[in-house]
Design goal:
Chain B: This is Ni/Fe hydrogenase subunit alpha. The complex is a heterodimer. Chain A has four helices and five strands. Chain A is an alpha/beta fold. Chain A has a five-stranded mixed β-sheet with strand order 2-1-3-5-4, with helices on one face. In chain A, strand 1, helix 1 and strand 2 form a beta-alpha-beta unit. Chain A is globular, with a radius of gyration of 14 Å. Chain A starts with a strand and ends with a helix. Chain B is of the alpha+beta class. Chain B has a single domain, classed as Cytochrome-c3 Hydrogenase, chain B, CATH 1.10.645. The chains are: A alpha/beta, B alpha+beta.
């Protein structure tokens, strides 16, 4: 069974980190990649009928820029009343997909702590390397 | 224990955050002795100053800038803007451009209405707190909504390059003409969607929707031939019939202390824009298949029940899907997807039907085509006075004897009928700076 790695982001500032992590991932046998621009509920469609998905997204968890968080679905607290027309975020989309019973059996999430300004190259490279290693660890 | 009968009790209700609407707003209600004394739809979303951002920018930048005002209706902002700028430059776009602008607009209606009906409104009428709770028992409804939304997004992407803040639109036309192959691939997906939307019309009409007849003025575009979307005159059921150029002579915006969005009145009165008003004023512009689906609901149209907005959205979804199929079937690529622009000083007006109602733009430009002034009136701010009027009437008709939770829920349901986009409505705040220099 293959693994789909999805980078989530937008073209703005450090929100590109999820895309960058996926685009720089060295080819791995059995792993497909995809980048999505603020997919909202479209994330559910992208994950449907997959066996194993790894999501990579910039996040703000209060740590230092470049910190990498390996998370599971259980780690996410979904804001259950914030489904609005514009901002069904990753957490809301995952909660909706779970309620519909269409999420893959395995879902991992990697969050990269973003800062308000671009992080120095050294920190960035280090963060991307740790993300790539985490992906390899999960699929091995 | 209160000394009053239940319907005479003092009520103070605050809904500090409105769920399932876009942007930051709140509802405050105070009632005494069975009458509403004060009702405020407070909009405190910060002002966004887009009109100021546009000043001194080139005409080339306007379509991409205004698309950023809204993540759900960027196409509407682009369409009203290019219309206005083309009028200012004396440019008439080709028939190819007009047809495909309408096609792209169909995509926006489809994704916006599909999301509203299935994820935002339906939980109210099926008895759930939100779409996530509803999805456990009604996954098929959510599936249908998401599939239709995706189709709408793909239609936007077809011409816009991407569905969020699309970049394919320019003054004069489109940057790029999509391939025939892509058009056919999209068209192949529409048959099933049309069938789904037809069933949705009957499904929404069959819901146990509250009966709440009210008196209000409907305002919408009206086109000679088409169900209004990209073009038409601004009409009302009170005899108004004007071009976009004359909008400011009839519609007046004003501030209220509790809102960062402007209120809008027509001849001093609140009015309604959006799907219900559009449908009420354009029943004779529906395609035969949509009209048949509407007639089969057994509901009386035009409707004075704001809760029929849900049915109106389903009807418009069916209409937009059929229109998109018709336009895609006739689609042919072109080598000239845009007309050359020759900037000149002037002014122009644009009015199109965003999913939530009329979106009006007015620009003055200099001889290089740089924006001198911009004015944008979105549908949610036009509906704001009507929403407050509706809330007052609806809650009194519902009965103030209901407990606070029931009143709160009914108030939220009334607001959600308008599918308000508060973020869109709050870029108008005028700021006066007192520097103490006088």
């Amino acid at each position: 069974m293959g693994v789909l790695v999805i980078g989530i982001g937008s073209p703005f500032g450090e929100d590109t980190l999820g895309w960058e992590a996926v685009e720089t991932l060295p080819p791995i046998s059995g792993v497909n990649t995809l980048t999505l621009d603020r997919p909202g509920a479209g994330l559910i469609e992208a994950m449907k009928e997959q066996h194993s998905v790894i999501l990579v997204d910039a996040m703000d968890a209060g740590g230092p820029p470049g910190a990498v968080h390996a998370l599971s679905m259980d780690d996410l607290v979904h804001p259950d009343t914030t489904v609005s027309s514009h901002n069904l975020g990753v957490v809301g989309a995952l909660a909706l997909g779970k309620a519909m019973g269409v999420l893959p059996p395995t879902v991992h999430i990697i969050g990269i702590q973003m800062g308000s300004t671009p992080m120095p190259d050294e920190i960035r490279k280090s963060a991307l390397a740790r993300i790539h290693q985490q992906i390899r660890d999960w699929i091995s | 224990m209160s000394e009053h009968a239940p319907h005479m009790r003092d009520i103070r209700i605050e809904v500090p955050v409105l769920a399932r609407v876009e942007g930051e707003g709140a509802l405050e209600l105070r009632a005494r002795e069975g009458r509403i004394e004060e009702l405020r739809l407070r909009i405190f979303e910060p002002p966004r100053y887009f009109e100021k951002f546009l000043e001194a920018r080139s005409w080339r930048e306007v379509p991409d800038t205004v698309a950023r005002i809204c993540g759900i209706c960027p196409v509407a902002y682009q369409m009203s803007a290019v219309q206005a700028l083309e009028q200012a430059f004396g440019l008439t776009p080709s028939e190819w451009v007009i047809r495909n602008r309408r096609l792209m607009y169909c995509g926006e209606w489809i994704q916006s209405h599909a999301l509203h009906v299935h994820l935002l409104a339906l939980p109210d009428f099926l008895g759930y707190d939100n779409a996530i709770a509803m999805a456990q028992d009604h996954p098929e409804a959510v599936h249908r909504g998401l599939a239709l939304q995706k189709l709408g997004n793909d239609l936007i992407r077809f011409l816009g390059g991407r569905s969020v803040h699309p970049v394919g639109v320019r003054v004069g036309g489109f940057h790029h003409a999509p391939s025939l192959e892509d058009a056919r691939a999209l068209g192949d997906r529409l048959d099933q969607a049309v069938d789904d939307a037809e069933a949705l019309v009957g499904f929404t009409a069959g819901l146990d929707l509250p009966v709440d007849e009210q008196s209000f003025t409907n305002v919408a575009l009206r086109h000679d031939d088409d169900y209004p979307m990209y073009a038409g005159r601004i009409v009302s059921d009170q005899g108004l019939d004007i071009s976009a150029d004359d909008y400011a002579d009839h519609f007046v915006e004003s501030h209220v202390p509790h809102s960062t969005a402007l209120y809008s009145h027509l001849d001093g009165q609140p009015y309604l824009v959006g799907p219900l008003a559009r449908l009420n004023l354009n029943l004779d512009r529906l395609s035969p298949r949509t009209r048949a689906a509407l007639d089969a609901t057994g509901l009386n149209w035009p409707s004075r029940n704001m809760f029929h907005s849900l049915v109106a959205r389903a009807v418009e979804l069916l209409e937009a899907l059929q229109e998109a199929r018709r336009l895609l079937e006739a689609y042919a690529p072109t080598d000239t997807p845009y007309a050359q622009v020759e900037p000149r000083a002037g002014e122009g007006f644009g009015a199109t039907e965003a999913p939530r109602g009329i979106l009006w733009h007015h620009y003055r430009v200099d001889d290089e085509g740089k924006v001198v002034t911009a004015r944008i009136v979105p549908p949610t701010s036009q509906n704001q006075a009507r929403m407050e009027e509706d809330l007052r009437q609806s809650l009194e008709a519902f009965g103030l004897h209901h407990d606070d939770d029931s009143l709160r829920l009914r108030g939220e349901m009334v607001i959600r009928n308008y599918d308000p986009c508060i973020s869109c409505a709050t870029h108008f705040l005028k700021v006066r700076v007192d520097r103490g220099e006088g």
